[in-house]
Automatic annotation (TrEMBL):
<dbReference type="InterPro" id="IPR036224">
    <property type="entry name" value="GINS_bundle-like_dom_sf"/>
</dbReference>
<dbReference type="InterPro" id="IPR031633">
    <property type="entry name" value="SLD5_C"/>
</dbReference>
<feature type="compositionally biased region" description="Polar residues">
    <location>
        <begin position="15"/>
        <end position="24"/>
    </location>
</feature>
<keyword id="KW-0235">DNA replication</keyword>
<comment type="function">
    <text>The GINS complex plays an essential role in the initiation of DNA replication.</text>
</comment>
<dbReference type="Pfam" id="PF05916">
    <property type="entry name" value="Sld5"/>
</dbReference>
<keyword id="KW-0539">Nucleus</keyword>
<dbReference type="GO" id="GO:0000811">
    <property type="term" value="C:GINS complex"/>
</dbReference>
<feature type="region of interest" description="Disordered">
    <location>
        <begin position="1"/>
        <end position="46"/>
    </location>
</feature>
<dbReference type="InterPro" id="IPR021151">
    <property type="entry name" value="GINS_A"/>
</dbReference>
<comment type="similarity">
    <text>Belongs to the GINS4/SLD5 family.</text>
</comment>
<dbReference type="InterPro" id="IPR008591">
    <property type="entry name" value="GINS_Sld5"/>
</dbReference>
<feature type="compositionally biased region" description="Basic and acidic residues">
    <location>
        <begin position="1"/>
        <end position="13"/>
    </location>
</feature>
<dbReference type="GO" id="GO:0000727">
    <property type="term" value="P:double-strand break repair via break-induced replication"/>
</dbReference>
<protein>
    <recommendedName>
        <fullName>DNA replication complex GINS protein SLD5</fullName>
    </recommendedName>
</protein>
<dbReference type="GO" id="GO:0006261">
    <property type="term" value="P:DNA-templated DNA replication"/>
</dbReference>
<feature type="domain" description="GINS subunit">
    <location>
        <begin position="94"/>
        <end position="176"/>
    </location>
</feature>
Length: 255
């Protein structure tokens, strides 16, 4: 086996023991011979992009799992990570017959499986929340769009919005067919259950910048609030509604 391959193997296993979760993904993009004719600078840029994409995907995945309600979609990050996975798998296919790269391919395939699990679990969790409160989520998504909110705060992706519309239509047709048509006209309106977020509490950690002006409910006077400031890297147990905006603005992350 060549010296260059030995060096790559050492780099690969060194990265696995340093605790840097993004390193294997970077190397999966640049260690194997490129399938095209891209320059070294392009490879390095792709690797840095992959590391940033993976970091963001990890954060939105953990936040979505810890959040009591649906968070704004990050479909662009999911698509970027899927693109990284496709590039890695294409690289595997182009070098599968080269015996010098079998170990590298096998190790990087484990990373592909891990990334695929993260994406699947993230999307599965979102669909679970959508299926629980489809009408409430659809109305909130519509209200945000009509208010001209920041695109990063839109709840549903285009695919999720299509799914919710089909789900609500199917529910309506089923209920009409099974029992609503048998009721008097005045009794055919059903009110969808909603989620009470006022009782939800979350563990969180503040990111690198301080967060000021967090509105906290005053337990002595239910209609009153007071403001608190959160120090960088500090951890708290707080009402979800108090930190929802900070979470959606990536100022805090859930634990």
């Amino acid at each position: 086996m060549s010296d260059s391959l030995d060096s790559r193997e050492r780099d690969l296993f060194d990265s696995a023991t340093t605790g840097d979760s993004s390193a294997p993904t970077d190397r999966a993009l640049v260690n194997l011979p490129p399938s095209g004719t891209e320059s070294d600078e392009d490879d390095e840029e792709d690797a840095m992009t992959a590391a940033e994409v993976l970091k963001q995907m990890n954060e939105i995945w953990l936040n979505e799992n810890a959040s009591p309600t649906l968070l704004p979609h990050r479909d662009e990050i999911v698509q970027l990570l899927l693109g990284c996975i496709r590039d890695m798998e294409e690289n595997f296919a182009n070098n599968r017959d080269n015996p010098d790269f079998q170990l590298i391919i096998n190790v990087h395939q484990l990373e592909v499986h891990r990334l695929t699990y993260i994406i699947n679990d993230y999307l599965r969790k979102r669909l679970e929340k959508i299926d629980t409160y489809p009408e409430q989520i659809m109305l909130e998504d519509k209200a945000r769009i009509e208010s001209g909110c920041n695109p990063n705060k839109v709840l549903l992706s285009a695919e999720e919005r299509t799914y919710v519309n089909k789900r609500l239509l199917a529910d309506k047709e089923m209920m009409d067919r099974v029992f609503l048509n048998k009721l008097p006209e005045a009794l055919r309106t059903l009110h969808a259950p909603g989620q009470d977020l006022s009782v939800e509490r979350v563990f969180l950690q503040v990111n690198s910048e301080p967060v000021s002006g967090i509105a906290m409910p005053d337990m002595k006077e239910p209609d009153s609030e007071y403001l608190i400031d959160l120090e960088p890297r500090s951890r708290h147990l707080l009402p979800f509604l108090s930190v929802r905006d900070a979470l959606e603005e990536n100022k805090v992350r859930l634990m």
